[in-house]
């Protein structure tokens, strides 16, 4: 049996003049440390892509004494991790000393924001308490939103959840959008999304116990998530890899965009999640999907089975759930020699990466983007950036850091969409084809030559919608910044 590693004694942390902590304070102190240990294993496992077990299995190990409190603390901290990190970043809580106990700081910040009130026992807690008075008030982005104290912040967080509209994506393999609008319209006010085709917006809190959901005619899918497959834009008849596919929301979306034609190789590492993936594929009627229980990094790009693959969707994060990794480090050269080379499939034309925003992940993402551009001779053609509800300005960072000003798009309304995600779309330079940039009508009539298409590239419908201009409008996506309404404001 593994030896139980003692948690630092509370007595050692207590100065002689301090009063003895109450039993409740003692048990909260230990629960926070036990929770930090579990959280550390979960996050480290995530980062290394080594599943360390479920939260439950870790909490129910013999070394954890206060199982109930530890379990609650871990789950709740993971649930609010993004807000917690924002607060900690804003107040600069993690100095070099405390970075070593990062997870404990997450837990304490959770308790401070949402949980325990009153006095906290322990050195880390005391350090946190000192920072606490400046924590909220010092964060300019919170100030701008009228957040003065913890209560305001928690209320803002809850409010933003409550006000979130519900998005449903119509599965066009089964029904068309007009039919869905009619059916759902009997119960709710339904709006069509102005960027993502076949995505409908319902009021916050709309009850979706609906037969259309049960029979796979519509999928409950957020706006950002629904944009990934559209950004990749596979054509009917293509072969596509969905590298990290379970539970399959984007897989079946790809299938719908491809009108059920061609082939989607849907890879999934996790055996349990493969079952969910298969169920969803069946429910959606996506007959062109081949589910593969595989680690996509082990696929051999020289294998003739992948020679026809033209696009890859890469969606590796599962933030907060602890079931997968939150960062893209494993794709970087230092973490996996030649990792990205492995997707250098000859006919590969497009690769879309989809990631949830997190502070930690930013640097990995930038390195990955640069690596892919360099190694795969791909140009990064599109960045869609949602600002976090708290309003951190990521757009500036990418603007200067990646010098992709002409392709940097900010297209969503913070107050409405409330999601923080990135999509990076890479298109291989050597096989740009005019049809990728032309409207369908122009393609059919052959009204623009290959040469002129290269010179004047009309935006595809997705990009056009992001920019809120008409799809046929011509833009010079040249070395100069594109003169678009959106880019002027960037
Ligand atoms: C964010 S989820 C994917 C969500 C999915 N694209 C959707 O829209 O429904 C990430 C998935 O990737 C899987 N995964 C992680 N690493 C993988 C790998 N190397 N190969 C295949 N699947 C992987 C995880 O098990 C998890 O199910």
UniProtKB/TrEMBL annotation:
SAM-dependent MTase RsmB/NOP-type domain segment(s): 156-429
Family, per entry: Belongs to the class I-like SAM-binding methyltransferase superfamily. RsmB/NOP family.
Biased composition (Basic and acidic residues): 10-23
Stretches for region Disordered: 1-27
Listed name of the protein: 25S rRNA (Cytosine-C(5))-methyltransferase NSUN5
CDD domains on file: AdoMet_MTases
GO MF annotations in UniProt: RNA binding; RNA methyltransferase activity
Domain of life: Eukaryota
GO terms under biological process: rRNA base methylation
Species name: Sesamum angolense
Signal peptide: none
GO cellular component: nucleolus
Annotated keywords: Methyltransferase, RNA-binding, S-adenosyl-L-methionine, Transferase
InterPro entries: MeTrfase_RsmB-F_NOP2_cat, MeTrfase_RsmB-F_NOP2_dom, NSUN5_RCM1_N, RCMT, SAM-dependent_MTases_sf
Binding sites annotated in the UniProt record for S-adenosyl-L-methionine: 244-250, 268, 295, 315
PROSITE patterns in the record: SAM_MT_RSMB_NOP
SUPFAM superfamilies: S-adenosyl-L-methionine-dependent methyltransferases
